[in-house]
Amino acid sequence: MGRMVWFDFGDTVLEFYRWDAAAGLAAVLQHILGESPDARLQEKALERSRLLNQLFETRSSATGLEYDQRSFLRLLCEPLTGRMADSLPEQLAGIYWDTAFSFRAQPGIHEALDWLDDAGISCGIISNASFPARQLAMELARHGLGDRFDPIISTADYGLRKPEAELFYLAEKLQPAGSTLPPWYFGNSIPLDIRGALAAGWHAGWYNRGGESRQRCPAAARELHSWGDLPRILQDTRQEAR
């Protein structure tokens, strides 16, 4: 086909269905201290986490810059514990992810990826994430998707968030040499995924599993209500290109 297909990560390939910040922070503090944190320290950590999350997200949303969860956790925990965690940030991020977050594969994503693989189409991921690509790859592997995406681009590794054009430019340069047609990008966010891809000259598919109104979605984007729609959309595009 001479085309590569890119996906968003959360709520597109994998569904993010649980965030237990308290459990994640307790596990991180235990790793730093070498013992279980008491209830008062856990409460202070949770409150500080809320304040820092608001600060970081406000700044990131206003500037398009991404922050790194490894730095975030150091800034959160070091004042509370009085201990430097400079040798532990990669471990801390992994501990927090594994304890705080729960994901499951989106219905039909395995079958859609099987179809792409049979068609000889390579796949990658571009994700707005404050965790490194390595963490995303490990989570994908837990759901039988460890060998499906290459490359995986996490904004934590590059400092910019979608819809910044530089991320899509980077992705184009990392595609296989035979990818000569405009790429596809599939995601669930209209302002971040769909508008970003279209602005970069890509095709865009809005993964609208929840059946939201299409009113805000650009006319140039295709719409999917399930991953069973993907083969038809790509086949239609192939016919149009002839």
Topology:
Elements: E1 5-7, E2 14-19, H1 21-33, H2 39-63, H3 69-81, H4 89-100, E3 101-105, H5 109-118, E4 123-127, H6 133-142, E5 152-154, H7 165-173, E6 184-187, H8 190-199, E7 203-207, E8 222-224, H9 230-241
Parallel strand pairs: 1-4, 1-6, 4-5, 6-7, 7-8
Antiparallel strand pairs: 2-3
Task: Give the DSSP E fraction (strand runs of 2 or more residues).
Answer: 5-15%
Structural class: alpha/beta
CATH superfamily of the largest domain: HAD superfamily/HAD-like
Number of strands: 8
Please tell me the CATH architecture of the largest domain by its name.
3-Layer(aba) Sandwich
Number of H/I helices = 9
Please state the average pLDDT score: 94
Low-confidence spans: none
CATH topology of the largest domain: Rossmann fold
- How much helix, percentage-wise, in residues? 40-55%
Structural overview:
The protein has 242 residues and is of the alpha/beta class. The chain contains nine helices and eight strands. The protein has helices at 21-33, 39-63, 69-81, 89-100, 109-118, 133-142, 165-173, 190-199, 230-241, and strands spanning 5-7, 14-19, 101-105, 123-127, 152-154, 184-187, 203-207, 222-224. The strands form two sheets. It has a six-stranded parallel sheet, with helices on both faces. A two-stranded antiparallel ribbon has the order 2-3. One of its GO terms (molecular function) is hydrolase activity. Keywords: Hydrolase, Magnesium.
